[in-house]
Amino acid sequence: MASNQGIGDSQIKDKISNTMVGFLGGGRMAQAMAKGFISSGLVRARNIIVSDKNEEMLDQLESIGVRTTMDNREVVSNSDLIVVAVKPHIVQPVLREVHQVVSPDKQLFVSIAAGVTIKSMEEDLPEGTRVVRVMPNVPALVQAGATVMSPGTHAVSDDAELVQELLKTIGICEEGPESLLDAVTGVSGSGPAYAFAAIESLADGGVKMGLPRSLAIKLAAQTLLGAAKMVLDTGKHPGELKDEVCSPGGTTICAMHTLEKQGFRGTLIDAVEAATLKARELGAKSANK
Ligand SMILES: NC(=O)c1ccc[n+]([C@@H]2O[C@H](COP(=O)([O-])OP(=O)(O)OC[C@H]3O[C@@H](n4cnc5c(N)ncnc54)[C@H](OP(=O)(O)O)[C@@H]3O)[C@@H](O)[C@H]2O)c1
Q: What are the binding positions for NADP(+) in this chain (predicted)?
């Protein structure tokens, strides 16, 4: 990251509210982020412009008040901060398409594409373009996202602060080296899917044991939410919290024994590894394009 003096908190908030935010690709993540930014009150819907090739996506986006277009160049020409939110294999063609309308001194590119490296982004954009690579997740939609960001070679500290502050409107945002982002994809980028499957399975268990489906889903979801909040609020190790709820000879330790016999922890570790390796594979492809 290039060096630059940081700016104050209220100045960053002012800067965010005056920033025109563009999205290249208006799918699930772009919609989650755009809705999160708007709900935070810091970004006005009219300051967001989104492009997509899919008319259905554009209709969904128009319903939240943002400007839409099918022209990626129009997004870049009208934005200060451009979120690259297309699938990883589409990043290179899209950046080549917009290359001519990029102003490296004025614009900042924020890529959310899994596995696409800062180096390959910088190579596909005009020399000196400021790039920040981030890995968000879909709970951004309800301002409970988890994002890690890594500034590129030409990004200055103001860029990192701006992106971090913007992403904090949709959850937590930590800064880390790019080398960690594939593992971040494995834990939090793909993680909501594991949590949704866990909620569904817990609810299935409840239904099997006689609970109405809607009550079972509500209980399962609130239980994951509550347990997660306890980990974050108390700062205690999750193993310690687990021990505290396993009373000797009780129901919970019997359930834990069943989970251990079925390889619960090993399965989750394998899942994180599989997603990380897939992100790494996508990154290697983008580096050898
Ligand atoms: N989903 C997640 O939980 C998550 C989490 C972290 C990061 N990410 C990253 O976020 C990015 C987007 O993922 P997503 O899940 O939001 O995908 P998505 O729902 O498929 O959204 C991508 C959108 O881009 C559109 N598109 C395709 N080609 C285009 C082009 N040339 N110009 C403009 N738009 C184009 C697609 O239209 P068509 O459908 O017509 O092709 C689609 O609407 C990916 O790079 C992914 O790695 C996703």
A: 24-29, 85-88
Rounded to the nearest integer, the mean pLDDT of the chain is: 94
Kind and range of the H or E element at 50? strand 48-51
Please, which residues have CB within 8 angstroms of residue 63's CB and are 6 or more apart in sequence? none
Q: CA-CA distance, 22 to 122, in Å (whole number)?
A: 18
CATH superfamily membership of 9-181: NAD(P)-binding Rossmann-like Domain (3.40.50.720)
CATH level 2 (architecture), domain 189-283 = Orthogonal Bundle (1.10)
Integer Cα distance of 115 and 178 in angstroms: 10
Every domain of the chain and the residues it spans:
9-181, 189-283
Q: Whose CA is nearest to atom 1 of ligand 1?
A: 29
CB proximity list for 7: less than 8 A, separation 6 or greater:
15, 158, 161
CB neighbour class for 70 (10 Å; exposed up to 12, middle 13-18, buried from 19): exposed
Q: Which secondary structure element, helix H or strand E, spans residue 259, and what is its range?
A: helix 251-261
Contacts of residue 222, Cβ cutoff 8 Å, sequence gap at least 6 = none
Over the stretch 168-210, which tens digit does the pLDDT of each residue have?
A: 989 999 999 999 999 999 999 999 999 999 999 999 999 999 9
Find the mean pLDDT for residues 45-70: 95
Question: Residue 206 C-alpha to ligand 1 middle, in angstroms?
Answer: 35
Is 20 known as a binding-site position? no
Can 9-181 and 189-283 be said to share one CATH topology?
A: no
